[in-house]
TrEMBL record:
Keywords: Cell membrane, Disulfide bond, Endosome, Glycoprotein, Lysosome, Membrane, Signal, Transmembrane, Transmembrane helix. This is Lysosome-associated membrane glycoprotein 1. InterPro entries: Lamp2-like_luminal (IPR048528), Lamp2-like_TM (IPR048524), LAMP_CS (IPR018134), Lysosome-assoc_membr_glycop (IPR002000). The chain crosses the membrane at residues 210-233. Its main location: membrane. The keyword Transmembrane helix applies. The keyword Transmembrane helix applies. Belongs to the LAMP family. GO terms for biological process: establishment of protein localization to organelle.
Length: 245
């Protein structure tokens, strides 16, 4: 019986290590938000749907996402970090589409904000990515208007004719003073047929989120099986000890 208890303890330890490793992997996979304390917390942003059309009226870029802007700026002789949710009902989409370049411009008159996403397509590999983001903002608390831009990004990578999807929150770092939190994002800048998204390619964060329950479930199932086998083996040996010779 001591041997059986030892096997059960070992099995429990293995299962706990697997669960801990899965949880640690999930924690490392999550993109960390900026470390500076926000000026205020606006809560989770509302998801908006945005369409860019060609001159003939056909859709050439689709995006569905909640957007949260993290901006550091000077206000009253001190630096503050403002967290602002983009309100879909107050945001006007526009943009353009070429064979290897597509842009989405989101404008809010009330907040005097212009946010631009530029996607680039590699015609050889048929892969696209978010290559540039720019922001211009003139909010009431700002000492002077803010302008931020990065033309060497490599986010939201997808395949021509497919959409890129990420339900988990992501943080896209643009510059030292500006980053974007995305929520329930799906975007397709190339290869649209009609006004519907193509088949989705899921981000690594979503895949990791699905992987955790599978690992935990497999660990627990393995633990139950090993304990059951140990019990049956121990019981068989116990019965064998009472047999007469």
């Amino acid at each position: 019986m001591t041997q059986i208890r030892g096997v059960q303890s070992w099995c429990l330890g293995v299962a706990l290590h697997l669960i801990l490793a899965a949880a640690l992997h999930q924690g490392l996979a999550t993109v960390a938000p900026p470390t500076a304390a926000p000026h205020k917390d606006p809560g989770r942003p509302e998801k908006g749907s945005y369409v860019v059309t060609r001159s003939n009226g056909t859709a050439c870029l689709l995006a569905s996402m909640g957007l949260q802007l993290n901006v550091s700026f000077n206000s009253q002789n001190k630096t503050v970090q403002e967290v602002v949710n983009l309100q879909p009902n107050m945001t006007k989409p526009s943009g353009s589409c070429d064979s290897d370049r597509a842009s989405l411009l989101l404008t809010t008159d009330a907040e005097k904000t212009n946010l631009t996403f530029i996607f680039t397509l590699n015609a050889t590999s048929n892969k696209y990515h978010l290559s540039e983001v720019s922001l211009s903002a003139d909010w009431p608390d700002m000492k002077e208007p803010l302008s931020a831009n990065n033309r060497s990004l490599d986010y939201l990578r997808g395949t021509f004719g497919f959409s890129y999807m990420c339900h988990e929150e992501q943080t896209l770092s643009v510059s030292q003073d500006f980053s974007i939190n995305t929520f329930q994002l799906q975007v397709q800048p190339f290869g649209l047929t009609g006004d519907q998204f193509g088949a989705a390619e899921e981000c690594q964060l979503d895949e990791d989120d699905m992987l955790i329950p599978i690992i935990v479930g497999a660990a627990l199932a393995g633990l139950v099986l090993i304990v059951l086998l140990a019990y049956l083996i121990g019981r068989k040996r116990s019965h064998a000890g009472y047999q007469t010779i």
